[in-house]
């Protein structure tokens, strides 16, 4: 996120309108919801984790224990359980 001077990019009338609410401070203007990307999609991390989770599920289905998977993937047993049983954070909170 880079700083830009409002006077350089916005019409003067709009700057004057904004100044009625805030002056001399930094103001963050978020992207439109439609342009938001899910975590990890840009860097490829999401697809790497999805592939890892599929390998974990496949191994579990083939008989590898939760404890063995936790050691193999350096995750807690609770994390492995969430992956293999498909539990999300919202499900756990209930």
From TrEMBL:
InterPro entries referenced in this protein's UniProt entry, alphabetically: c-mor_Regulatory_Protein (IPR052411), Homeodomain-like_sf (IPR009057), YraL-like (IPR049739)
UniProt xrefs under NCBIfam families: CD3324_fam
Species this protein is from: Fictibacillus macauensis ZFHKF-1
SUPFAM superfamilies assigned: Homeodomain-like
Protein name per Swiss-Prot or TrEMBL: Mor transcription activator domain-containing protein
Top-level taxon of the source organism: Bacteria
């Amino acid at each position: 996120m880079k700083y830009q001077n409002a006077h350089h990019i916005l019409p003067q009338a709009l700057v004057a309108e904004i100044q009625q609410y805030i002056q001399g401070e930094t103001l963050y203007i978020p992207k439109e919801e439609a342009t938001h990307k899910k975590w990890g999609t840009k860097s490829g991390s999401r697809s790497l984790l999805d592939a890892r989770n599929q390998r974990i599920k496949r191994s579990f289905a083939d008989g590898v224990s939760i404890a063995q998977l936790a050691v193999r993937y350096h995750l807690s047993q609770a994390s492995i359980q969430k992956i293999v049983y498909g539990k999300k954070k919202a499900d756990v909170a209930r």
